[in-house]
## 1
Amino acid sequence: MGRGTSVPRPRLGGVVARGAVCGAGAAVCLTVTALVLRDDARTDLLEAVAFLGLVAGAVSLLTGLFFWACCSGEVLRWRDLFRTSGPSEVIAVLAPCLVRVGVLLLVPVPVATVLGRLAG
């Protein structure tokens, strides 16, 4: 793309949808892994995924939404990182990343919880 070409800014719905799709892939990998492991290791894995996914996902999502609100919706893409001119623009790059990672981490939590109840 040339310098005059305008790239649309990321929208919150699109960022959340992409994070959910990646999280669904992670949930499939978690399910396959849980089916392969022994009972005691399976329970430990599912408890760890549920707890860590919930804590890290909530922190990432809430931080990303806070940054998004601070940027007034003027968020940037990763390719704009080296063209930033101040700290506020770096936060504008991090906002969609943290939202996507937060959603990605939160999607496998219900899967881990259900599988944990079935296994335990």
## 2
Amino acid sequence: MTPATLREHTLELAKDLDTGDWMPTDLERVITQRLLTAADPVGCLTDHAVRDAVWEGAEPLTRASDGRLSLLLAEITYSLAGNGRDAAGLASAQALLASVNRRGHSDA
């Protein structure tokens, strides 16, 4: 994985979310809500919060929507843990999670 991978995957998922090609499952929405709640006090995602959220969904998350959110979370974790942290990619990924969360609430 490279820093560009996170940005590319985030842009692809954001486009698919906007066009309706990706419809996040209830599990994916719960995971994004947990991540955003964990990020709120510090203002950004942490590798610990991502790992905790993934642990909650573990195996089913890899099957939901062909594992698209699961892959993004792996890329986020890689970027957070790596020496070459991609701040722009992480901000875009967090914005995508917020978009998924907003759409989940508007569907309810």
